[in-house]
Amino acid sequence: MAPVITWLSHLANPLASPEQLATSTSQLDGVPQDLEVSLRYAGARLTQLAGILLRLPQDIIAQAIVVFSRFWVGEGGSLLEFGIKDVSAAAVYLVAKNSPLPKSPRSVVNVYALLDTSLSSFEDLRAEFADYDADSHYVSEGTYQASRSLLMKTEAQILHKLGFQTHVATPYALCINYLQALDVLGGTKGKDVAKRAFAHLNTSLLSPQLPYLTNQPSGLATAAIYLAARDVGVKLPGTEWWEVFDVDREELGFLVVGMLSMEGFSLEVQRQWRRRRIPMTVDAVEGELESRRLLNGEA
198 to each of 129, 171, 191, 224, how far by Cα in Å? Predict the structure, then answer.
């Protein structure tokens, strides 16, 4: 996904166009939409776990997930050409490299090797894997050199598909600023609202509606605050306060509905893939497609 950018600040993102969201290279190659959505969801969760194991802050992890998601949109990468594990690893490496906390190729390779041997199904993609000691897991030198070469090649493909546009503005800092402007943080439940708002922002990174690719950080922060205040029971100004943050009612409603739907979506995906191996590689995706063809009685 390489959108045309007419202006950009450190608080704004390049957004995907409706045309880019209408289809994808994977679907044109014959990957069913439901499979593509499931794998993008798994890849985003994998990126989140890898970031935690690498001791990266949530802001950097979020940037990596957005870069991972952008890669598949429009004329981006195809699941029949790139494995989600490889793209996830390259996205983490690329984003961390441009941050104050860069990670070496060996650290990234070791963490993804650990996850590859530990994960078997969607039910295994849980935050408990953060308890693993990533530094205790190593791969052989031959495996490392091959994995490092693939990491570098996939990173180059991400840069090419994105037109070298890797800027990602996240909504976390804005969320805190907005809560301060609304005089919420000073209240007795201010910290609880902030925690809930951040939880909604983190969950939205996994959404099949790709809100981080279609909405600016101001909209995401505003919707998260709206829901968090409702969850905790904190009353916000009676007027249409979101307009102060340049968010209209329609955008707010769309984002709120999307955030509320995440729990049901996550449970449904896990139900569909109950105790089944996640196809993290191109070969595994091809195997899944072949199994579906056989089940449907196709030659």
Answer: 21, 9, 11, 7
